[in-house]
Design brief:
The protein is mainly alpha-helical and 225 residues long. The chain contains eleven helices and three strands. A hairpin with a 6-residue loop joins strand 1 (173-181) and strand 2 (188-195). Helix 4 (41-62) packs across helix 8, helix 4 packs across helix 9 (131-147) and helix 6 crosses helix 8 (111-129).
Length: 225
């Protein structure tokens, strides 16, 4: 579909429309075409960081909650489930460029793909128009979700684990992608959690974020939490 329609849905007109094209291009498409095509994984990386600072700043000024509660609220707002809902509101799936295999297996509605693409769109807006443009795009989604506190509920095992580890400043927690396999439409990721040099959790999922949550849950269970 024409990206001008997506611009209208986003409420932002790009000076460089090419960056939006990259944001909506999945790696499965880039892998299938013969000429070199940029895809959205780098933008996803940047968008994740931009989203985090926008949501963190908004919650800090909007809520008088303490750090632990703010962290949980942020985690609920930026998790894959929430980002998929945000992507659905602008019908982002219909604008994605996908490989044939991904297309045939429901890639346009896959939560991990939609969440990643939404982050990539945030990055595209940020690069094209700056932080305030990105903020104007993101906050309506955030505020709508915050109106219904029941929607801001997510068992964020990573945050719970981090809060426990932070009580011992000498301890260092890190996440490591140790394996991935499968075609683009059915990827599997394996993540390990290291506490200093010890593996305390291992998780598998269809996205890196899901695998990290599974690993964190296992680590909490190991700790009796």
């Amino acid at each position: 579909m024409e990206l001008s329609a997506l611009e209208k849905a986003i409420g932002y007109t790009f000076r460089d429309i090419e960056i939006l094209r990259v944001a909506t291009t999945h790696s499965s498409y880039a892998n299938e075409v013969k000429h070199q095509v940029k895809f959205n994984e780098r933008l996803e990386f940047l968008g994740d960081a931009v989203l985090s600072i926008i949501v963190s700043d908004h919650l800090f000024h909007r809520s008088g909650s303490q750090e632990g509660e703010l962290t949980k609220m942020r985690a609920a707002l930026v998790c894959e489930k929430s980002l998929k809902l945000f992507a659905d509101k602008i019908e982002l799936g219909q604008y994605l460029q996908l490989g044939k295999g991904e297309e045939m297996t429901g890639g346009r509605t896959r939560p991990s793909i939609l969440a990643d693409a939404f982050e990539a769109v945030i990055a595209a807006i940020y690069l094209d128009g700056g932080l305030e443009a990105a903020r104007s795009f993101v906050l309506p989604f955030v505020d709508e979700m915050l109106k219904d506190s029941s929607k801001v509920s997510f068992k964020d095992y990573k945050t719970l684990l981090q809060e426990i580890i932070q009580k011992n400043p000498e301890e260092h927690l890190s996440y490591h992608l140790v394996d991935q396999w499968g075609p683009d439409h059915d990827k599997h990721f394996v993540v390990e959690i290291h506490l200093n040099s010890n593996v305390i959790g291992r998780g598998e999922g269809k996205s890196k974020k899901n695998a990290e949550q599974v690993a964190a849950k296992q680590a909490l269970e190991l700790m009796g939490k």
